[in-house]
Structures are given as C-alpha cells and as structure tokens.
Amino acid sequence: MKSATDVQKVFNPDSGVHRRDGLNYKLTQDEIEQFHEQGYLVLNDFLTEAEVATLDDWFEHFIAGKQTGMGRDFCDMSQPYGTPVEKFRLVNAVLPSHYCDELKNNIFHQVASNVANLLYAGGNAVMDYDQFLAKKPGKAKAQFLMHQDLGYWPKTENTWTATFSLALTDSDVENGCLVVIPGTNKEPELRAHRPVDYSGTDDLTQNRDESHTLMIESLESDKPIYLPVKRGSVTIHDERIVHGSGGNTSDIWRKTYVMAFRAEETVKQERAMGFTHSHNDDVNWETFIQ
Which residues pair with 75 in a beta bridge? Predict the structure, then answer.
C-alpha cells in the first residue's frame, strides 16, 4: 500500500450527485483551473447508481468478447496482438458505441459532454472515441505503463483533449487505479515514446503493428499520485499529462468506461487522415513516434 501522501483518497469532497442539474454537472472555477494547470480532475458520483447500471450489461457483453466483427479492437492492451482470449489480462474493447448503436448518446456520453464543454474554452467539444477496459483479478501485469495520450495520436493543430474514465467498479491502488504526475501537461515538449517490447530483449526496432502499447522513461523529478475512485465517479485528464496504471493484485475486477472529447475540428482532421482510434486503422505508426 502506498503512503497517504501518494494516494488522494478524497480529492474533491464537495463533488457529488448534488452538483448535478439534470444532465449538467456543475463545475467550480477552481476545478476548471486545476484541469488546465495540473492536467487532471476527479469528480465523485458523476453518475447515479441507476445510471451506471444501464451500462453494466453492455460492458459485460463487450469484455466477454461477444461483439462480432471487432478485429483488433478487442484485444489485451498489456500483451501482443494475437494473444489468446483465455490468456487476456487487461481486456480492451475500443469504440463500443461504434459497434453498437444502443450505446450511442448514452447517459455517460450526455453528462460528460456537458462537462467537456465547460473545460474546453472553445465550447465545441465532441466525443472522439470510447473504450471499455477491464483488469482481471490477480493479474499484476495488467498495467498501462506511463505515457502521454498525445504520443499515440497524429498531430493536429489543436491537441486539446478531456478523457473521462468512469469507474464501473471501485478503483484503488490494489486493483490498478489511475496514476498521474500533476503538472507534466505543462512540459514544453512531449516526452519520447516507444512501443513496449514484449520479447524481453529491449528491441527498439519493435513497431506498433506488433505492439500498440507505448511507454516513456520516467524522470527522477516525477512525483506520481494515485487516484482511487468509487463506482460512478470519474477521473478526467488531458492529452499531455504523464499517467498510467498499475496491475491488479486484488481479487476483484477493475472495470472502466473511457470516453475522450476533443474539439470538433480536431476530430475532423483526424478522420481526414484516416485515423479513427480503431486498432484496425491502416496507419503508418512510425510517423507518430516522438
């Protein structure tokens, strides 16, 4: 267990369902400023239990691999493409609302969209992609190594992003909650990213057709904090903050619904490049590596 100084057990005690007005979650100016200055935000009770429950069956459907036609969009994000399903540790189902019309404009999307437009000064943010993620119990290697989201994407004129991670189960240090390094979103240059080498040989010639997952080297000055949240709560982070998450050493699943919002023009630029965030995209990944 990490020390109390490493773990933000109650970051924002005033946040909660009482801050909801219909689909609108009321943010304070301090919260908006924290997102821009520190690169992240935590909001408790973002959705009610009844609202979260409407998403559970769809999550289980995708994570169980029951959705057909997904190709590489159903994979293990901690292992190479082609890993047998029975050996998955970190189960990933990307773009579920693309594959299932019933998930379009769901309650999470509606509430998050309102908050994204409060965080984005331009006030015209749209959903760029969504993703179901599940860390199986007792899988210490079901981890996301430290990275910046912008390292995964083609460069656009406007990089602004707000990525919402909705906890469908309680998330804590033991089952691999989000870890962030506050303020790294303000670093002048993006850190160098490279594909994870699953061969154990530290082969830097690996490419993203073999390993979609990227990693960076941590700095001695990095001071990570852990962001445990309860079911129905969210973390929100921007595209430049250094972050990741540990493996699941507990006996319970960690289940998360991720949804990212960007400026409408940015999404149009991505699509014009042929980039949809699908692992099935035919993309020259080498042009993205920093």
Answer: 92
Instruction: Please tell me the distance from the alpha carbon of residue 264 to that of residue 262, in angstroms, as a whole number.
Output: 6
What does pTM read for this prediction?
0.90
What is the architecture, at CATH level 2, of domain 17-280?
Sandwich (2.60)
C-alpha distances out from residue 87 to 47, 79, 252, Å: 32, 9, 17
pLDDT band at residue 201 under the 50/70/90 scheme: very low
Domain ranges for the chain, please list them: 17-280
Edge-first strand order for the sheet with 144-147 is 144-147, 242-245, 178-181, 225-227
Following CA atoms 263, 35, 190, 123 in sequence, which dihedral angle do they give, to the nearest 10 degrees?
A: 10
Residue 197 has pLDDT above 50, yes or no: yes
In the prediction, which pLDDT does 9 show?
44
23 CA to centre of own chain: 22
Number of H helices, E strands in the chain: 5, 15
Q: Residue type for 280, please?
A: N
Cβ-contact 255, 168 below 8 angstroms:
yes
Closest CA to 16 of 7, 25, 24: 25
Token pair, residue 16, equals: 């909660």
Written as six digits, the tokens of 111 are: 């509430």
pLDDT band at 199 (very low <50, low <70, confident <90, very high): low
The pLDDT of 116-143, averaged and rounded, is: 95
Residues recorded for the chain: 290
